[in-house]
């Protein structure tokens, strides 16, 4: 039986503000990425969501981002590899503390937004992030864009990694995500998202924005919790995967061979 992890960005609010789908997403995913205070998240939200995910049987991961609440962590910043290391250590440590209090382990680490995209192509940042994960939580799985420098850096340093693909984003010919400011970057139709996910899982390929099929490795599928149709997409994809005989469970990760 084919198995896939469905992950969702979660707890991306701050104080009284809430962004995206809430606890109702937990019944459709197998792992969640919790904001750790930089682009979103605060101690109260982090604690609450760790407990809610634990009680739902969903694996908990840290979602460290750039210190940019106004831009929701999606604006690039000129940071050094040391700064990247320090930011990630700080944020992983914060969420790991709440996991310890809740009696669960930190399952994975997935950078957020611009930090994720920067680490996909910048080897020095990817190496700094991988080192931060290894130093703070060496048993955690590093989630990164399929084919990225981040996945490569994680494997080289001896971490378990999971190559991530996206249900609601389109792809370019080089395997990168279509930038959000480009027309067609987001899939707005649930059936389109389902077809893309099934193609990636079953054939190891994805159809790019210009219609070309390229190879891709999909070990975890991201469902954006802040999307306009997040809950509907999650329900639809979850149902169709089960109908197709594909099991949904948290990623185990691949070790360096």
Automatic annotation (TrEMBL):
EC number(s): the record gives 3.5.2.9
Name of one Pfam family that matches: LamB_YcsF
| Highest taxon above the source species | Bacteria
Is-annotated flag, keyword Nucleotide-binding? yes
**What chemistry does it catalyse, as a reaction equation?**
5-oxo-L-proline + ATP + 2 H2O = L-glutamate + ADP + phosphate + H(+)
Q: What class of enzyme is it?
A: hydrolase
Record's signal peptide:
none
Q: Which UniProt keywords apply?
A: ATP-binding, Hydrolase, Nucleotide-binding
Q: Which HAMAP family did the record assign?
A: PxpA
Could you say which protein family the record assigns here?
Belongs to the LamB/PxpA family.
Main function = Catalyzes the cleavage of 5-oxoproline to form L-glutamate coupled to the hydrolysis of ATP to ADP and inorganic phosphate.
Oligomeric state and interaction partners are given as:
Forms a complex composed of PxpA, PxpB and PxpC.
Q: What is this protein called?
A: 5-oxoprolinase subunit A
